C-alpha cells in the first residue's frame, strides 16, 4: 500500500497548482491509482492454502474420506480459473458474490463453474 500512497502524493505534488476541487481530484486519483496497481498486481495475487483446515474436518462417513493431497493434485489439472474459484471458496472462505466480484464475473456463472468443477473432481477421484 505504501506505493499507492506515494503515487497519489507524487501526482498531487505535480498538479497541486491546477487543482480546483481537491476532494473530486483526490477521489479520482485514488481510484485510478488503485485500478492501475490492481491490474499490475492481479497476476501476483495468490491464495495461501491453510492445510490445517483439512485436518479439522470430520468426514461424514468412511466412504467420504478423501486424501486432501490427492484432491489437490486433481484440482491442479484444471484451468487456473476453476482452481481459483475452488480455492477462494474453500480456503479463502469467500461467498460466491465475493468471488464473482473479485474475478469480475457473474455470480451465477461462478456458482455453476464451482459445482461443475466439484463434480469433475469427484468423477476423477472415483
Structure keywords:
Arc Repressor Mutant, subunit A; elongated; mainly alpha; 126 residues; 2 domains; 7 helices
Overall description:
With 126 residues, the chain is mostly helical. The chain folds into two domains: 2-44; 51-125, Arc Repressor Mutant, subunit A. The chain is built from seven helices and no strands.
Quick structural gist:
By secondary structure, the chain is an all-alpha fold.
Spans where pLDDT lies below 50 across 5 or more residues: 54-65
| CATH class designation of the largest domain | Mainly Alpha
Shape: elongated
Order of helices and strands: HHHHHHH
Q: What's the β-strand tally?
A: 0
The CATH superfamily name of the largest domain is: Winged helix-like DNA-binding domain superfamily/Winged helix DNA-binding domain
Kindly report the CATH topology of the largest domain.
Arc Repressor Mutant, subunit A
Query: Percent helix among the residues?
Result: 55-70%
Rg: 21 Å
Strand share of the residues?
under 5%
Looking at the overall shape, the CATH architecture of the largest domain is Orthogonal Bundle
Largest sheet: none
Task: Supply the number of structural domains.
Answer: 2
SSE layout and pairing:
Elements: H1 2-15, H2 22-41, H3 51-56, H4 68-75, H5 80-90, H6 96-103, H7 107-125
Helix pairs in contact: 1-2, 6-7
Amino acid at each position: 500500500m505504501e506505493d499507492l500512497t506515494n503515487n497519489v502524493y507524487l501526482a498531487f505534488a505535480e498538479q497541486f497548482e491546477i487543482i480546483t476541487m481537491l476532494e473530486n481530484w483526490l477521489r479520482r486519483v485514488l481510484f485510478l491509482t488503485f485500478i492501475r496497481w490492481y491490474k499490475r498486481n492481479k497476476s501476483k495475487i495468490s491464495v495461501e492454502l491453510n492445510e490445517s483446515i483439512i485436518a479439522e474436518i470430520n468426514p461424514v462417513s468412511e466412504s467420504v474420506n478423501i486424501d486432501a493431497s490427492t484432491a489437490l493434485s486433481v484440482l491442479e489439472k484444471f484451468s487456473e480459473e476453476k482452481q481459483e474459484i475452488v480455492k477462494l471458496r474453500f480456503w479463502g472462505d469467500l461467498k460466491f458474490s465475493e468471488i464473482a466480484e473479485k474475478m469480475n464475473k457473474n455470480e451465477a456463472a461462478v456458482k455453476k463453474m464451482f459445482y461443475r468443477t466439484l463434480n469433475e473432481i469427484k468423477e476423477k477421484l472415483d
